Structures are given as C-alpha cells and as structure tokens.
C-alpha cells in the first residue's frame, strides 16, 4: 500500500503548489492555465484512446455506458459527494483560495474531474497489480510523478477540490492493490488496452470541459468500463 500513499501524497502536493501559484496570477493568466491544462489533457486522452484493440467494443461501451450512467445520474452523485466533502471540511464557509460565488460548484467539479483523471488508465490497473503481487512500485511511482504535475495544472485551473480527489485515488488504487491477487488471472493485455482506450475517451471529455467547448458529464460514462470487461471476457 506504500505506493498508494505516495500517489495520494503526490496529488495533494501538486494541488497545493497549483493553489499557491493560482493566488498570484491574474484572471487572464488563470484562463490561459485552464486552456493549457485542457489541451494537455486532451492530448493525453487521445494517446490513450488510440490504444483500443477493437473500436466496436469502445463505441458500444461508451454509448451504452453513457445511457446507463445518465439513468443512474452517476455524475450528479459524485458532485453531491464533492459538495458534502466541502461542507464537511469547511462547514459551509468559503473554501481557501476561493473568490466568491460559485465556489461550491467549482470545488465539486474539480473533485469530480480530477478523480476521473487520476483513476482511469492502464498505469492505475497494471501498477496496482504489480504493487500488490510483485511488490514492484515502479509504475505507481512513475504515475505519482505524472499525477503530481497534472494536479498542479488542475488545481491552478479548477481549485482546491483537486486535492480531495486523493480520497478517490486512495480508495480505488488501494482496492485494486488488495484485490490484485484475486483479479490478476482474469486480466489480459487486450482487456488492459480496451480499458485504457475507454479511459482515454473520458479524459478527452475532461479536456473538452476544461476548454469550455461543451459541458460533458464525464462520470456518467464510467459504466463503459464494466461493459468493456464483459465484451472482452465473453466475446473471444
């Protein structure tokens, strides 16, 4: 579990650095930071999405998963969790580094988007398996460095909610690490590629949100991961 704590620490440290610099920049510069974060996020997402093994799997998974997520309102529930964390930690007061109206929404959206960004992708899955089974922490340590730098950009663009995504990172990667011995036999290279591609598509959605091109409820597409697993396992 040491690798999980390191990853969470990197997210929190990166967020603090991002918030520190965010207080010292103008609104125009903040807009530039958000744009840069959006572009980098989209590039990362496109690179991941292109690793698909079967484009049909990803297409059906995203469409059907999005419908399921919409019916369950997963995005709304995670936003409510973000708002709950804000009330719990700040007792309804203005959050640190905030500047007035809309901070509750910004906190929740930062928490939501950062949680999805830091948890999807092959490095989370493979890194957790290697940490749990082989005690090899190299992948998670590498991911921690990348997440730390992304947290700087995200926190500077979206606020302190980014730091609280470390809670989701801890629960998600911690669970994968603990369950790795049981899950590992069922994980193939094809499955990792498909999950990486679906995660990349969701990261592209986050980039689109950051660029204010369209407001996409990214978390509603999370059921696509379950569908991807079913496609790969059941259709051979």
TrEMBL record:
<feature type="transmembrane region" description="Helical">
    <location>
        <begin position="107"/>
        <end position="129"/>
    </location>
</feature>
<keyword id="KW-1133">Transmembrane helix</keyword>
<keyword id="KW-0812">Transmembrane</keyword>
<feature type="transmembrane region" description="Helical">
    <location>
        <begin position="149"/>
        <end position="172"/>
    </location>
</feature>
<dbReference type="Pfam" id="PF04474">
    <property type="entry name" value="DUF554"/>
</dbReference>
<feature type="transmembrane region" description="Helical">
    <location>
        <begin position="218"/>
        <end position="235"/>
    </location>
</feature>
<protein>
    <recommendedName>
        <fullName>Membrane protein YdfK</fullName>
    </recommendedName>
</protein>
<keyword id="KW-0472">Membrane</keyword>
<dbReference type="InterPro" id="IPR007563">
    <property type="entry name" value="DUF554"/>
</dbReference>
<feature type="transmembrane region" description="Helical">
    <location>
        <begin position="56"/>
        <end position="76"/>
    </location>
</feature>
<feature type="transmembrane region" description="Helical">
    <location>
        <begin position="192"/>
        <end position="211"/>
    </location>
</feature>
């Amino acid at each position: 579990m040491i690798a999980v704590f390191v990853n969470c620490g990197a997210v929190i440290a990166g967020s603090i650095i991002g918030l520190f610099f965010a207080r010292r920049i103008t609104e125009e510069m903040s807009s530039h930071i958000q744009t840069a974060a959006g572009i980098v996020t989209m590039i990362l997402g496109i690179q991941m999405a292109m690793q698909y093994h079967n484009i049909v799997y990803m297409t059906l998974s995203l469409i059907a998963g999005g419908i399921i997520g919409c019916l369950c309102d997963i995005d709304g529930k995670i936003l409510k969790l973000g708002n709950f964390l804000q009330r719990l930690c700040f007792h309804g007061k203005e959050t640190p580094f905030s500047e007035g109206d809309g901070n509750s929404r910004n906190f929740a959206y930062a928490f939501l988007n950062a949680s999805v960004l830091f948890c999807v992708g092959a490095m989370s899955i493979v890194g957790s398996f290697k940490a749990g089974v082989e005690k090899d922490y190299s992948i998670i340590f590498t991911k921690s460095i990348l997440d730390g730098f992304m947290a700087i950009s995200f926190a500077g663009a979206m606020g302190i909610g980014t730091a609280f995504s470390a809670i989701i990172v801890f629960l998600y990667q911690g669970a994968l690490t603990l369950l790795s011995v049981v899950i590992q036999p069922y994980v193939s290279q094809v499955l990792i590629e498909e999950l990486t591609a679906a995660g990349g598509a969701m990261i592209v959605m986050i980039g689109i949100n950051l660029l204010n091109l369209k407001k996409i409820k990214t978390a509603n597409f999370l059921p696509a991961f379950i569908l991807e697993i079913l496609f790969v396992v059941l259709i051979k």
